[in-house]
Design brief:
By secondary structure, the protein is an alpha/beta fold. It is built from 16 helices and twelve strands. It has three domains: about 70 residues, no CATH class; about 260 residues, Aspartate Aminotransferase, domain 2, CATH 3.40.640.10; about 120 residues, Aspartate Aminotransferase, domain 1, CATH 3.90.1150. A seven-stranded mixed sheet has the order 1-7-6-5-4-2-3, with helices on both faces. Helix 3 packs antiparallel against helix 11, helix 6 crosses helix 7 and helix 11 crosses helix 14. It holds the Pfam family GDC-P.
C-alpha cells in the first residue's frame, strides 16, 4: 500500500494535556451514568482520543479539505453525474431562518411558507417533465427508482395483472436500474444496443411479453445519445400492457427542448442534486422526486402535499398509496436549493443550460475523436463516450490515463462504463465550464495519449504528484485498512 507523504495522522500529533475545545455550561440535569445504567454498558477506560490544540485541529482539517477534489476547486467531468457548479445564492437562501430552522413536527399552519415552496417546486417539476403530479419524498435517485417501480407494481396489481414480473433494462443502463428492479421484486431483462448506440427496437419487440411490467430508460441514454425511436418504443411497451419508467439522470441535456411525459413515460424520477445544482459530492445529500401520470397518481407515497382554499396540507388519506418511503417529507434543504435554481434561471435559462451542455460535449468530443476511438460517431447530447483501445495496444489502459490526469490537476471522467464499450471513458462537461477549462482538459488528454506513444511508463506508473501514489489495487481490495490501529 502506498504511504502518504509527510502528513501525520491527528493521533500522531496528540500530546497529553492539550485541548482544542470549550464546552458550554451544562443546561440539562447532570446524570450519574453508573447509577442509571447497567455496569456492562459503562466504559471502563477513557476513549483514546487525540489531544491537540485548537490551532492544530483547525490546520489538520483544513489540510484534509484541500486534498479533496470538489466542484469548487476544479473540473469534475463525471459522465452521467452532472457534477456542475452549485450557485452560492442557493446556500444563502437555504440558510434563511424560515427554512433552516423549520421542523417537521411543528404544526402545519406554522410552516406554510416551507410547504408553499415544496408545492411550487412540485409544480415546476411537473411543467419541466410533462408529468401530472410529483412527490418530493424520495431521498435520492435510487430510492426514486425503487418508489417508481413500486408504483408500477401497485398499478398492475390494482388491475389484477399479477403476472408482470419483468422489467426491461438496456445493456447500457445505469447499474441502479437492474438493482432497483430486483429490490422491487422484478426480474431484469436486458435489451440490446444497436450499432448506433441506441436501443435496438427489434430486440425490444423480441423481449417484450405479457410478463413485462416496465421498460426503464434514460433518455438521452448513458452513451449520451438521444433515443430517436422513443415514440415507437413507448407504443411497443404500452401495446404489451407495460409502463415506461424514465431515469432522470440525464435531464440536464433536454430541459426546455423535450419532456419525458411527451415521450410516453408514465413514471419519472429526477436527481435534484444533479440537474438542479444541489451539492453532489461525498454521497449526498440527494433528492429524487418522482413524477407520475394522472392514472398513476393515486399510488404516490403518502402523505401527498396538497393545496386547498389557499392552505397547504399533507394528505394521509390515500388508500391506494404505496405508503411512506422516507421519514418526514424529503430532503428539504436540497429542495430549497433546487427551487432557488429554477426560479433564478427561469424557462429560458433552463433551456440555455441544455444548449450549452450539449455544445460543450460536442466540442470536446470532436476535438478528441482523432486521438481516441469514438465508438459512436454521431452528435451527442450532454455527455459522450470515447475509448482508450488505441492506447491499450501500446500498453496503457484507461485506468492509467485516469491516474495520469491527476498529475494534470483534473478529476478523471467515469471509466469502464458503460460496460458495452471497451476501455470506456464517459465525459460530461456540463454547461457551467468555460471553453478555457475544456481546452485545458482536452490538451491534457492529448498529452497523455502522446506519452502513451513515446513514454508509456510515465502513464503506467501515474500519478506522480499526488499525496498518495499508485495503489496496489489487489492488496487494497483483499486487505483493506479500515480503521486506525495504535502502534
Amino acid at each position: 500500500m502506498a504511504k502518504e507523504k509527510d502528513f501525520p495522522l491527528i493521533f500522531d500529533m496528540s500530546k497529553e494535556g492539550r485541548k482544542g475545545y470549550q464546552l458550554p455550561e451544562l443546561d440539562v440535569p447532570d446524570v450519574d451514568l453508573d447509577a442509571d445504567f447497567e455496569d456492562e454498558y459503562i466504559r471502563k477506560e477513557a476513549p483514546e482520543l487525540p489531544e491537540v490544540s485548537e490551532l492544530q485541529i483547525v490546520r489538520h482539517y483544513t489540510a484534509l479539505s484541500k486534498r479533496n477534489h470538489g466542484i469548487d476547486s476544479g473540473f469534475y467531468p463525471l459522465g452521467s453525474c452532472t457534477m456542475k457548479y452549485n450557485p452560492k445564492v442557493n446556500e444563502e437562501i437555504v440558510r434563511l431562518p424560515g427554512f433552516s430552522f423549520v421542523h417537521p413536527y411543528q404544526a402545519e399552519e406554522t410552516a406554510q411558507g416551507a410547504m408553499e415552496l415544496m408545492y411550487d417546486l412540485q409544480t415546476s417539476l411537473e411543467n419541466i417533465t410533462g408529468m401530472h403530479q410529483f412527490t418530493l419524498q424520495s431521498a435520492a435517485g435510487a430510492q426514486g427508482e425503487w418508489a417508481g417501480l413500486m408504483m408500477i407494481r401497485a398499478y398492475h396489481e390494482s388491475n389484477g395483472d399479477t403476472e408482470r414480473t419483468e422489467v426491461i433494462v438496456p445493456d447500457s443502463a445505469h447499474g441502479t436500474n437492474p438493482a432497483s428492479a430486483a429490490v422491487a421484486g422484478f426480474k431484469a431483462v436486458t435489451v440490446k444496443t444497436n450499432d448506433r448506440g441506441l436501443v435496438d427496437l427489434d430486440d425490444l419487440k423480441r423481449v417484450v411479453s405479457e410478463k413485462t411490467a416496465a421498460l426503464m430508460l434514460t433518455n438521452p441514454n448513458t452513451l449520451g445519445l438521444f433515443e430517436e425511436e422513443i415514440i415507437e418504443m413507448a407504443e411497443v411497451v404500452h401495446g404489451a400492457g407495460g409502463r415506461l419508467y424514465y431515469d432522470g439522470a440525464n435531464l440536464n441535456a433536454i430541459m426546455g427542448y423535450a419532456r419525458p411525459g411527451d415521450m410516453g413515460f408514465d413514471v419519472v424520477h429526477l436527481n435534484l442534486h444533479k440537474t438542479f445544482t444541489g451539492p453532489h459530492g461525498g454521497g449526498g445529500p440527494g433528492s429524487g422526486p418522482v413524477g407520475v401520470t394522472e392514472e398513476m397518481a393515486k399510488f404516490l407515497p403518502k402523505p401527498v402535499l396538497t393545496k386547498k382554499d389557499n392552505q397547504y396540507t399533507f394528505d394521509y388519506n390515500r388508500p391506494d398509496s404505496i405508503g411512506r418511503i422516507k421519514p418526514y417529507y424529503g430532503n428539504f434543504g436540497i429542495n430549497v436549493r433546487a427551487y432557488t435554481y429554477i426560479r433564478s434561471m427561469g424557462p429560458d435559462g433552463l433551456k440555455q443550460v441544455s444548449e450549452n451542455a450539449v455544445l460543450n460535449a460536442n466540442y470536446m468530443m470532436r476535438r478528441l475523436q482523432d486521438e481516441f476511438e469514438l465508438p459512436f460517431d454521431q452528435h451527442c447530447k450532454h455527455e459522450f463516450v470515447i475509448s482508450g483501445k488505441k492506447q491499450k495496444k501500446l500498453g496503457v489502459r484507461t485506468l492509467d490515463i485516469a491516474k495520469r490526469l491527476l498529475d494534470f490537476g483534473f478529476h478523471p471522467p467515469t471509466i469502464y462504463f458503460p460496460l458495452n464499450v471497451e476501455e470506456a471513458m464517459m465525459v460530461e462537461p456540463t454547461e457551467t465550464e468555460s471553453k478555457e477549462t475544456l481546452d485545458e482538459f482536452i490538451d491534457a488528454l492529448i498529452s497523455i495519449s502522446n506519452e502513451a506513444k513515446e513514454d508509456p511508463e510515465i502513464v503506467q506508473d501515474a500519478p506522480h504528484t499526488t499525496v498518495v501514489s499508485r495503489m496496489d489495487e489487489t492488496l487494497a481490495a483483499r486487505k483493506p485498512v479500515l480503521k486506525y490501529e495504535k502502534e
